[in-house]
Amino acid sequence: MIAKVGFKMFLGVTASVMNWDTDGTCCSIVLEDNPLVDFVELPDTCQGLYYCNILSGVIRGALEMVAMKTEVTWIRDMLRGDDAYELQVKLLKQVPEEYPYKDDE
């Protein structure tokens, strides 16, 4: 639910979270549309490029702000001929919160 609201609010796209693994540490985010690729065509020499890789960095950075170390990779990209935009989010570890001060001082 949070992913749907966040993507709709900040990017204006509808996202679905699916394909959870049995541990609950890996899932896919499927975007129905991607406004970053409007009017973009990759030439044949750049087919290895993930044009929207900034999205994976944004997701990873946002999750680091809430103490989650993750790996975010592209699974499908319509610019590369796939049928959808799909990112895989994998939780590597939950980072314990550290406070810069002590309560007893």
Going by helix content, strand content and strand pairing, the class is: alpha+beta
Major sheet, described briefly?
Answer: 4 strands, antiparallel
Fourth-tier CATH superfamily name = Trafficking protein particle complex subunit 3
**What is the CA–CA distance across the termini?**
40 Å
- Can you count the helices? 2
Low-confidence stretches: none
Shape: elongated
**What's the number of extended β-strand segments?**
4
Q: Which CATH top level class fits? A: Alpha Beta
Q: Please tell me the CATH architecture by its name.
A: 2-Layer Sandwich
What percent of residues are in strands? 25-35%
Keywords:
105 residues, alpha+beta, Muramoyl-pentapeptide Carboxypeptidase, domain 2
Task: Characterise the protein shown here.
- The protein has 105 residues and is an alpha+beta fold.
- It has helices spanning 2-10, 53-65; strands at residues 15-18, 26-31, 68-76, 85-94.
- It has one domain: Trafficking protein particle complex subunit 3 (Muramoyl-pentapeptide Carboxypeptidase, domain 2), CATH 3.30.1380.20.
- Helices cover 21% and strands 28% of the residues.
- The protein has a 4-stranded antiparallel beta sheet with strand order 1-2-4-3.
- Strand 3 (68-76) and strand 4 form a beta hairpin.
- The longest helix is centred in the middle third of the chain and has 13 residues, at 53-65.
- The termini are far apart.
- The mean pLDDT is 82.
- Pfam families: TRAPP.
- Belongs to the TRAPP small subunits family. BET3 subfamily.
- It comes from Gossypium armourianum.
- This is Trafficking protein particle complex subunit.
